[in-house]
Model the fold of this input.
Amino acid sequence: MKPKIFITRKIPTHVINHLEEVCEVSIWEHKDIPVPREVLEEKIVDIDGLYCLLTDAIDLELLQKATNLKVIGNMAVGFNNIDVEAATKRGIIVTNTPGVLTETTADLTFALLMATARRIPEASDFLREGKWSTWSPMLLTGQDIYNSTLGIIGLGRIGEALAKRAKGFNMNILYHNRSRKIEAEQELGLEYCSLENLLKRSDYICVMTPYTPETKKMIRKEHFKIMKETSILINTARGGIVNENDLYHALKDGEIWAAGLDVFEQEPVVLDHPLLSLPNVVTLPHIGSASIGTRTKMAEVVAENLLQALNGKIPTNIVNKELIAK
Ligand code: DGY
Done:
């Protein structure tokens, strides 16, 4: 009997076809509507493999219903939507998609930094709204990027890729991480700092850390108070890492200059969210890895991980490595 896989959203056809060669596949076909909880609860009961997205909460309650599940393939590098501990206890392998999205996400992070610093969306709206009457010395002036100081919080793959881009802009690069990365320091000329030191000295602060209980709301009121009034916060990691209410007040009160946000604590962010009322916030709908090539590769990686696990192999991108010994 073929193993059963459930895919929680429409994904590239060639990936579905590949999975169908060896599996019985069912799909929540919608492109833009997350799978309803009741459908997921019904499907989880007898499937062997789950292909899910960061919009699907794979929690203890759901996993308790999964009597046959062997592997969960998350189409993201972050896996905070999955209760990995509960999966591990049940012997269920969890996989993610690191590596393939590194450069694309670093590109977007740098693009958001530049768009925020130079007020690009605001300037574009200004022109389209017919407000451009003349060239003017201080019209829509922003912050310089070349020669400025970048602080990276969380020096993983994407953080390092961001640092490489920043080097091209002759930026002085600081980083804060759980552990020091001497090789990266030497290769890229980075300086390791405490969080406080980084926040005080940086012109641009990029949040690049995974979302865990330790990093939940790690950037808050007291941190904005020590940042430069001209500084810009960029978050392309997870919204919950920054206290959004504190960020709103810091931006409104001029404690910091602007923010570029690709992620929010609740997604999609509601249109009456206070942060969206501020002109000095540039927002995007969580598109860090959204290039055609990268999203396609991510889908292929999820499929490969699922097939490896269902064939009794250790998937390339296993998250709960403690299961390997078992
Ligand atoms: C991830 O992979 O965690 C991103 O947020 C989406 O690509």
Q: What stands out?
A: The chain is about 35% helix and 15% strand. Residues 4-99+292-323 form a domain with the Rossmann fold fold (CATH 3.40.50.720).
